[in-house]
Amino acid sequence: MGDGIVNGAAAGFSPFLLGWIVLLPLIGFLVNGAVAIAARRYKPVPLAAASEEEDVAHRHEEHPATPEPIPATPPAWTKSLPTFVAPGVIALAFAIALVNFFRMLGAGDALPVIERYWSWMPVGDLQVDVAFQLDQLSMLMTLIITGVGALIHVFSVGYMKKDEGYARYFAYLNLFVFFMLILVLGSSFPLMFVGWEGVGLCSYLLIGFWFREKANADAGKKAFIVNRIGDFGFLIAMFLIFAHLGTLNFVEVFAAAPEQLAFGGAVVTAICLFLFLGATGKSAQIPLFVWLPDAMAGPTPVSALIHAATMVTAGVYLIVRSSVLFAMAPSASLVVGLIGALTAIFAATIALKQWDIKKVLAYSTVSQLGFMFAAVGIGAYVAGVFHLMTHAFFKALLFLGAGAVIHAMHSALHATHSPRDAQDMRNMGGMRRWMPWTFGTMGVATLAIAGIPPFSGFFSKDEILGYAWSGARGELPISQGSLFGVGGEVWMLLIGVLLAAAALLTAFYMGRMMLYTFFGPNRTGEAESPHLHEVGASMKWPLVVLGVLSLIGGLFQVEADVPIVNWFAAVAIGGPDALYNFLAPVTAPAAAVMAQNIPAATVATHPAWPVLLAIVIGAGGLLLAWYLLKPAALGVEGEEPDYRRAWERILHDKWYVDEAYDRGVVRPVVALSGFFARVLDRRLIDGTVDWMGRAAQSVGMVGARVQSGHVNTYAFVLVVGAVLALFWFSGGFAWLAAS
Amino acid sequence: MDFYGSHWVLTFLIFFPLAGAVVAALVPERLARSVALGVGVIELLVALPLFWTFDPAAGMQNRIDVPWMADWGIGYRLGLDGISLFMVLLTAFLLPLTVLGSWSYIRDRQRAFYAMLLGLTTGVVGVFVALDMFLFYVFWEIMLIPMYFLVGVWGGKERIYAAVKFFLYTAFGSLLMLVAILYLYFKAQGLTGEATFAYEAFLALPLTFTEQALLFAGFALAFAIKVPIFPFHTWLPHAHVQAPTAGSVVLAGVLLKMGTYGFLRFALPLFPAAALNETTVLIFMSLAVIGIVYTAMVAAVQPNAKRLVAYTSVAHLGFAILGIFAFNLQGIQGALLLMIAHGLSTPMLFFLLGMMYERRHTYEIADYGGLAASVPILSAMLVFAALATIGLPGTSGFVSEFLVLLGAFQTHPYLALIAATGVIFAAYYMLPPLQRIVFNALDRKENRVIPDLNRRELTILVPLVALIIWIGVYPRPVLDRMEPAVSQLIHQVEGGRMVVAPPTDHAAERPPVAAADEERR
Amino acid sequence: MLTYYLGLSAILFSIGVAGVIVRRNAIIMFMCIELMLNAVNLSFIALSPYAGIEGQVFVFFVIAVAAAEAAVGLAIIIALFRHVESVDVRNFSLLRW
């Protein structure tokens, strides 16, 4: 193995039960999966209809339709066991991760620790191990995944309580955490890819969790296929890396890349762009963002965990993990930043006109992911990770809060069997009366995402905007790069403007969501509203914990040299710039690459006005929503139209991107497939084969005509032949020829 | 007698099923399947220790070379190396499973059926271990007969058409190979004066480039039809759709591998200059890539689940061809691993389709829907098999496809790039039908009352699941056993391609490969 | 003298050949075949004083084979007759192709 790998003792840090962090969720999956299989036998089987239609069931003696009488309800343990096992394993994993975190802090070492388990793909030069790499970045991600994951598991206990697929749900959720941990802890690109596709699988299964609705199953399928397009990019990037560097292990790749690849060269740019293609799939960026809004078909805690806090941020993790490569490819980095900024503004506009509360949050997630990509694209890796972290807190909270609201709405509508949509904000209104805890915590999250100090989102978003402004003034290394012949500063200015606009829209649509949901009169209905209620303890306390984290999360990274922000330096957790210092060993190689190749990038200076502007934008967006929107005047679903003006219609219909993909990609591919299958394959290729067979047959038929089957004819031919033969032997032909 | 150190283990593996076939044909009808199961289990138990007794460093082992028809130099020559080992193991592994899979599926003429199934195994194992070209050809052709009857007697509605097409198409390809083998035989006799069909004797023959090219074409056509490589694939969907479950399983599981095995064992080492000629490589890799993308698209719109899986087989074997002609360690090992992976995941799909057929008597995707609600275990298995087929990481399919593409990318990056879109197309052909079978509303009464998998069916599927995950997570034991054989093959072929006999009769003609090689330098 | 014997034999043989070619009744065709066999037998015997005793031995063989042939042939014709109620060979062309 390479030089960068240091075993625990030498580095002064030995990982504590690292394997168990990953193994525990797998155990949870196996246990819950077994329970799910055991529980399915108690599921009420709709056999009543079948008894009168015996003929439709093809039964053999070996396939008795009812092997034994099936009790209608499963025993209690099929619910109580997952209740304890599923959150339990994640919480335990979180505890182990915390131990490792504090050990790591104490050790203060800069090197990644690699724990090898077995050799996975040893083929010639290719040596890929199943090994985990624990460094500051993977540590942070592990804490987020297990920490937020544990909270969401607890929340799910209440949310999914009455679902018949309770154990199955937790099995999938545990499996997801398992794969997500492999993704962030894997020490090589292929192993990361295992997690990468594994989380995609769990996402697929969980989006389509309520598979009886075709739309849900469709959404899961769409997510999987779109993600596979991204995975294709990831694969090609891996092949390129291996072809040029001869290895796929992180430590070796990042050590070899600066020496063996040309800075800004075609190879490293191609690698980065293909990696980014992978990231756009997983992290729902333009052009592959279309699956994420549909993914809201899954249970809401799933949206919180997978489609907000963890899986969708994997692309950001990938880029930060490969920061050395991206630092070597300024053009590719600018592409990343630009796509991120465009996605941020684009998704924010769509979020303005959605009525489904989860759709608003989904587009908000796409938009916030755009912020992260913009950050890592302009080289602000720590800022990207920081926003990833705060976003994990406040967006998970928002989704869980939305889940709580939907839960209440659902039970209220269910009580009267109302067919109305439990997720449509037009059916809500004034919910703060019934759900004060939910309202309060979601309010915190809204202030955080809007970027109001001192909430967490303020610090992370401001840092990204600040970097964009610095870059626009040419102070970042990436500013020296260029794209399409245009200098990096110009692009960064564009990125900064787009992000600022997106931030304004963010505050506005979040204000809109809060107003329509929690303020104004209630529109749920006379009969239904008494059934609205605050959620139970298992759902409330995760909200509270996430609320606290959304409040203080920003204090992990208080920039000491930025005005206004540094007022909070005194209360910063772990001191000013704590996250920056913590992650410095991970981002240092990238910084070194840039310092080495880009002559004298000026040191960033921080004026106060961008910070002020950010605050004004955040507060302004919320105030604008407060004054422009009138929840009191809003009609219920059906009365209130989806849109009033043409531009509202375009936003409501999501810029018709899905339709464009359908016409431009899906239908042509399906049509081409049909043509291939029906014409080319059946007619042309198989037809040619059959034609050759028939041709041989017809040649044979010519000979077959002679065989009339009549003995007399045969005998006649025989006699004629015999006479001719006699004639021949007696020299008759020679005699004829002679005369 | 050292059973595992000598040829006896191979001899046993070849002829024991044949003996079993005779017994199965003679016992009373109701006992036939039990006999077949017993034979299958013994075959597997005998084959299994080979995994440990096999010595990767020893090269070709368990050899025997005794005269059979001595006057013509035909011998009983067998041997096992890292390339054939896993094909033999796979064959032995699938045999008892196919018997179990036919347990209730086959109701009439059981004696004949199980006799055919066992006889087929004899031919397949023989192909994988024969080191005499004549013996190889005998096994190669003999295996057609039981397969013909399996499709033609116990098949679906158009079984005769499918069986005849299968037989004629593959036999047609083989005949040219026979001509090529005979040419090699007479060439060897002319040069050394000694009549022999020994594989190693043919390896040493000096051949001109033209000879190599023509003979390679003869071999390659036979193997290309068997694999099948686009555009020689159209017999496969017919055969699969009509074949009974056991037939499909054996066909997809091992018969197709005879083609890829043939390329590795015969076509490449015997004619290295022609096979690794840049044009040849380009042709085969392009056909492989076309096969991957094209058949994936064709598969996606098939209304019949079995036909769909048949087309996916063509796409998968396209990956194997891609890896073989990439001709580096990653490519060939990936291809070999892919042959194993495909030999596990596709049979699993066929088993599951067979189980669904037993319940609902249809292969039409549209007749299903919402099975996850009525038969969750069957559905879970189907989802797993489908995901294994599309190469999800953690299953054997991923490791093999990854290695193949990695290997191909090093020699032909652009072709590998197109081939890699296969991962997208795989999701495109597999997920929509999976959704229409397993998910969506359970809106047909017929689908509500079907029973879930029973113990026998689980016995078939669980070992497959275990192996798929094992090879996906820890393929090293397999890779380690292959690697010496593969590197030896690469070494030998790379060495051989430079040695082209000068054209004797056409003195003016210049061997194109040498010219091409000079240009490249 | 020999010329007469051989001439009779040739006439008988020609009648047989003509019968097989021309007639459609299976039984008559069958009898014509017998006729040809006996024509050959006649020439064997006529030639035996000159060519050797083997000719007469051959006649016994021919008679034996003809007897066996008559048994099998008539059995086939009867079986066919049972099947199609006819001994017309135009009905028996199932074996072509």
Strand tally of chain A, please? Answer: 4
**Helix residue percentage of chain C:** over 70%
Main β-sheet of chain A, in a few words? Answer: 2 strands, antiparallel
Contiguous uncertain segments of 5+ residues of chain A: 1-11, 44-68
Total separate domains of chain C: 1
Low-confidence stretches of chain C: none
Q: Tell me roughly what share of residues is in helical segments of chain A.
A: 55-70%
Quaternary structure: heterotrimer
Tally of DSSP helical segments of chain C = 3
Average pLDDT of chain C, to the nearest integer? 88
Which structural class do the helices and strands of chain A define? Answer: mainly alpha
**Rg over alpha carbons of chain A:** 33 Å
Number of strands of chain C: 0
CATH fold descriptor of chain C: Helix Hairpins
Class based on secondary structure composition and strand pairing of chain C: mainly alpha
Mean of residue pLDDT values of chain A: 87
Task: Specify the overall morphology of chain C.
Answer: elongated
Q: Would you identify the CATH architecture of chain C?
A: Orthogonal Bundle
Describe the model.
The complex is a heterotrimer of chains A (739), B (521) and C (97). Chain A is mainly alpha-helical. Chain A contains 27 helices and 4 strands. In chain A, a hairpin with a 2-residue loop joins β1 (113-123) and β2 (126-134). In chain A, α5 packs antiparallel against α12, α12 packs antiparallel against α17 (381-415) and α17 (381-415) packs across α22. Mean pLDDT of chain A is 87; it is low at 1-11 and 44-68. Chain B is mainly alpha-helical and 521 residues long. Helices cover 74% and strands 3% of the residues of chain B. Chain B is built from 25 helices and 2 strands. Chain B has helices spanning 8-26, 32-47, 50-53, 82-102, 110-129, 133-142, 144-154, 159-192, 199-203, 209-226, 235-242, 245-270, 272-275, 278-300, 305-326, 329-360, 371-374, 376-389, 396-411, 413-420, 422-438, 445-448, 455-473, 476-498, 512-520, and strands spanning 61-69, 74-80. In chain B, strands 1-2 form a two-stranded antiparallel ribbon. In chain B, a hairpin with a 4-residue loop joins β1 (61-69) and β2 (74-80). The N and C termini of chain B lie far apart (54 Å). The model of chain B is unreliable at 506-521 (pLDDT under 50). Chain C starts with a helix and ends in a 13-residue tail after the last helix. The relative contact order of chain C is 0.13. Chain C is mainly alpha-helical and 97 residues long. Chain C has a single domain (2-91), classed as Helix Hairpins (Orthogonal Bundle). Chain C contains 3 helices and no strands. Classes of the chains: A mainly alpha (739), B mainly alpha (521), C mainly alpha (97). The A-C interface holds A 704, 707-712, 715-716, 719 and C 17, 20-24, 29, 89-90, 92-97.
